[in-house]
Each structure stands twice: as structure tokens, then as C-alpha cells.
Write a structure and sequence with these properties.
This protein has 768 residues and is an alpha/beta fold. Helix content is 14%, strand content 20%. It has an 18-stranded parallel β-sheet, with no helix packed on it. Strands 35-36-37-39-38 form a five-stranded antiparallel β-sheet. It has a four-stranded parallel β-sheet with strand order 1-3-5-7, with no helix packed on it.
Length: 768
Amino acid sequence: MGIAGTIPPQLGNLSFLVRLNVRNNSFHGHLPTELSRLRRLKYINLASNDFEGEFPSWLGCLSAVWYINFEYNRFSGEIPKVIDNLYNLEKLGMERANVTGIIPQEVGNLSKLEVLLLHSNRLRGPIPLKLFNSSTVRLIALTENDLSGELPSTIGAFLPNLEGLYLGGNEFTGTILTSISNASRLRMLDLGGNHFTGAIPHSLGNLRLLDHLSIYRNDFSEDSLSKELSFIISLSNCKHLRSLWINENPLNDFLPKSIGNLSSSLEFIDALVVESEVKFQVRLIQGAIPSELCYLLNLEGLYLAKNKLSGVVPSCLGNVTTLRCVYLNSNNFSSMIPTSFWSLRDILKLDMSGNYLTGSLPAEIGNLKALLYLNLSNNQYLGRIPSTIGGLQDLQELSLEHNKLQGLIPDSMKNMLQLRHLDLSFNNLEGEIPNLLQVLSDLQYFNVSYNRLRGPIPHGGPFTNFTNLSFLSNEALCGAPWRQPCTSTFQHESRTKRIFMIVLLASGSVILALVISIFLMRSKLGKKTLAPTQNLLPMATFERASFHKLRQITNGFSESNLLGSGSFGSVYKGIRENGMVWAIKVFDLQLECAFKSFDRECEVLSCLRHRDLTKVISACSSPDFKALVIEYMPNGCLEKWLYSNHHFLNMKQRLDVMIDVACGLEYLHYGYSTPIVHRDLKPSNILLDQDMVGHVCDFGIAKLLGDGESVVQTKTLATFGYIAPKYGLEGLVSTSCDVYSFGIKLMETFTKRKPKDEMFTEALSLRH
């Protein structure tokens, strides 16, 4: 109803009140003690409000109450022991009510109790033994707490009316006792997410009314599961079983054929392997999916992801028309998805990503009219995206990235008006991005990077929110603010880079790419003299940046705007009023060397102008604050693209970045009147702009070789692993030091192995 405020104490004057229901409102504060006068009260429902304070001890005065529901509130403290005065209580609901402490033994004295709901709290300790001796209890829900101990040996013997037992997500230990099968009316059994050991009792098959069984993520011994998972055979007696959750257990190697003996009423099978911190080794299911699985004609959910299943997907699954969710991703399936799958007109979610599926996407894909989620990424699909895919008008997420799809993006996708997520990256798609996709007003994520697309990028609808990260590495996309304007002829790559690409593709060898790149660097740096750049810009006139302004655009240098930290300070992202983004490097003045580093970067960056070096925009200097405002690089550092699971550079991109670094290094050594040695070349000091062009940054320990010097002495060492041996031993700095660091970084870029990788021992190094 949306009523707010507190419960007035005058409510306690309604001495004939029998029923109090304020559920689903916005009441807050403490419950007034005057409510203890309501001795005739039988029904109390305070659920879904914002009450706080300890559970009232005066509840013990309301002996007539048979129903209490305090769920979804912010109470504190323990369940009061006076609760055993409520001898008429039949239902106690305190789920998600912030209950702490132990379950008092007095709960077991409630002789009429039928329903106990205490899940999702912070309860600890064992369950009162008396609770398992109640002949009236129908439902016990204690999931997601910190309860511990072993289940009593008498469990099930004195619970003739028990229908639901939910103990998942706790710390229970010991074995699952066969006596639990004595609870003959049991329909829902959840023992998952605990530390049960030993064998899974076959007597569970005696629970003829069992509807739901969850035993996921326990510590069952491997020898307790025979090669045919014989406990599954025992479950064939459970004719009403609808869902089976067995994931994250040490399952045996193969999915047994006996799974087909389960009740035809089974709707969900979950053997999904989820990465988690468990104390045992999760063994992955391998082999083929037995065709006997198709006997489960009421199956709605099949969850077998992240295993080692292989072979082909049984075509008979297409006959299980009740299927709604199929997750077979991250396995080793090959061949094609059987054509019968495309006749599952009521399927809602299909995930076959991360396999070795081949062939082309059939036109019949448009038959899945009810589909909400489709993920076929990371496979080997060829051919075109069929135009019939536009018939999936309820589809919300489509992922086809990392395949070998060709041809155009079909115009029919404009009909997929519910689409929120569309990923077509890392394929061979060509042509233009259909302008009609602007009508997809719900589209929140769009990625067509690493294709062969050309022409103007749509600028209306959801495309106003997409950045360059959605369009990286295509042939000739244009027209966006961060790309070149569209012209009658598209610009092409330079002849030099085309030659490198041809050589690289022809050789198919990383080693040859390394040799060519090193030869390029050595040949340019080996020149004895190189005329200084004639068009060198004079000292730039920088935009003024005050401390107040920098503090304002970085939200007070908040952590949410922190881009990274280094040896001399931290870098923050700042967004100006006009939308321009700055990177602000704030020096930590508590470090003695920070003053010298700031002066050195000002000295170097204020004079240098090259497309492959970071550009300084402004500086702010006072006795207690020093910062540099430099060009913002939206794609971060090279290190992120080499080692992050969510980023990837293909071989050509790595080569292009290394050529950019080589050109920037050449300019430092020969393109300015005073040679400059960077001294700390490493992947974290290579930044990538919106077009994935590499920029050398961080000149905090750079050295200028003035008055004809070729070598200088220093005590400041660079990063270990990238230091030239002579530099490290003698402290001698020359341009050769940068050449050595470049060579190490070149090998690291193509092998994705850091110089300090654990594979390198005293007898082996990246250089060797």
C-alpha cells in the first residue's frame, strides 16, 4: 500500500484486535511495547517493511498467536527464548530479517509448529535436536546461514509429515544418513553447498514423492559414486522428480546411460561445473551425451556447461519439445548443432558457446520465435548470418563473436526490437553497418570490432552512446567523432604496414615477425647520424589548470576515477565541462624522488611532439601539489591487452603497436636536438589511443644526453627484467639501453611471457 511512518503505540489499546497485517509498506523504527497488550492477537504479518531493533521479548505474552511473519526487515539480535510461550504457533517466518545467534532450543518445544522459515540470515551453531522430533512440522527452511554440526541420526524417523527440508548453503558436516528416507512425504530436499562426506545414500530412491533434490557442492568421496552413478539408478523410483542439482561434485568421468531411467517428469538437470573455492578436486564429465537423456520428455532445463563433453549433440533432443533452457557451453562438442534443434519453438535460452561447432547458421534459426538468449560465440561457424535471424523479435541477447562468419550484417536485424546485447566481433563480416539498426532503442551493448566493415557508423538511436571500443580494427569505418570523416574514397593502410602484414601472413611464423621487427629497429637505430626534425614545434603554450579545477573534474580525486598507480604517484580520469577527457598524473610528494620525476617529465614532455609519444596538455605545480595533465588514452596500456582475459590483440595489431613504439623511440634518440633515453620501456608504459596506436609514456626517469654525450652514469635503476646487463651492473645509460628494453618487450609482446615469468629459471631467460 506504500504507507510510511512508525507503528503508533496507541495501537496497543485495540484490545479486541485479532489480526495485524501491515505487509509491503514502508514502516520503520522499533515496535512499540504497547503491542504486548493485544492478548487476543492471532495473526501478525510485518513482512517487507523497514522495522529495526531487537526482536521484542514481549512476543511471549501473545499466547494466542498462531502466525508470525517478520521477513524482509532490519531487525537485529537473536530469536528470544520466550518464544516457547507461543504454544499455539503454527508458522514462524523470519527469512531475510537479519537474525543472528543460535536457534534457541525452545523452538523445539512448539508442539503445533508446522512451518519454520529462517533462511538467509546469520544464524550459527547446530539445529535444536527437538526440532527433528516434531510430528507436526511440514517445512523447515534454513538455507544460506552459518549453521554447522551433523544431522541427528534420528532424522526422518519422527518427521512423518515433513514435506520440505532446505539446509543448503551452510556448514553442515558428517554423512547424509539413510534414515532421512523415513520421511516418506518428503518432496523438497536441499542439502547442497555444505560439507557432507561419505556416500550418497541410495535410500533416497525410497522417497517416492520427491520432487526436487539438490546435493550440489559437497565433499562426497569419489569412490561413493560408481562409474554408472548408481544413486541415479535408485532415483528412478522417484516418479515425481522434477529437478536434480548435482553440480560441483566429484562426479565420475561419464554421464551414465542410466540417467534415462529417471522419471519422465524430470524438468531440470544441473551438472554445471562452476568455478569456486572448494576443498576437493572437481572432476569434469566427459564423453558423449547419452541418447537415453531424450527419454526425459518433460525436461525443461539442461545445464551441462563447463565440462569435457564431446562428440555431437544428440539429434533426439530436438524431440524434447518441453526444453526451455539448454546450457552446453564450454565443452568439446564438434560438428553442427542438429537441425532438429531449430524446431524447438518454445526454447527460451540456448548457450552452445566455447565449443568446436562448424558449418553455417541455418535459415531455420528464425523458427525459435520465443528465444530470449542465444550464445554461439567462440566456435567455428562459417558463411553468412541468415536474414531470417530478424524473426527473433523477442531476443534480448545475441552473441556470435569469435567465429568465422562472412558477408553483410543483415538489415532484418532492425526487427529485433527487444535486443539489448549484440556482439559480432572477431569475425570476417564486411560491408556497412546497417543504418536501420538505429531503431533498436533498447540496445545497450554493441560490438563489431575486428571485422572488415567499411563506411559510415550510424549516429542515431543507441549509437550515440557507443564509443570507439565498439568498432575497433575494421577496414574503413568513418563518420564518428573519434574517427576520420567519410569521404568518397576510404583511406588505406600505409604501404609499409601492408608489406609487413603480407610477410607475416605468408610466413605464419611468430619468429619471423620478431626477426623482421628487430631488423627494422636495428637498421634505423644503427644509423650514426640523423638530422634533427626540421619542423620541431617550439615550446607549447599550455592551457592553465588549477588545483581546484583538477579536483573538480576528478570528483575530488576519487577512487572511482582512478586509472592506475605507479612508482611516483597515481593517474586519475577527469571529464571537463565540454566533455573532453583528461588524464591527470598526481605525484606523491611524500616520496623524495617525486619532485625530480615531476621536473624531468615537464622538461621532456614540454618540448617533444610525436604521434607515438604521450602529449602533455598542462601542468599544475605548487609547493604541496604537483600534477601533469596528459592526453587520455581510452584503451589503456599494452600490458592489459596482453594479459587480461577480456582483451585480445591479434598478431597484426601487436606488430603495429611495436612499430609505433619503434618510431617513438627513434624520435627520442635521433629526432630531437638532445638525445633522450627513456630508460623504462615496458608494456605498462605503452598506452593505446582510440585507434589502437601505441604511445610511449612515463618519462619520470628519462635522461637527456647533452653536449655530445653518448653515455651517462646513474644510480636510479629501471624495472628488473627490462634492464640491459651493462646498465644494471655499472649504471651506464645510453640509447643502447632502450634498444635492449625494446627487444625484450618485442619478444614479450609476441610470446605473452613476462621476463619474470615462473618458467624462466637461472638457466633460462626470455632473452635466451
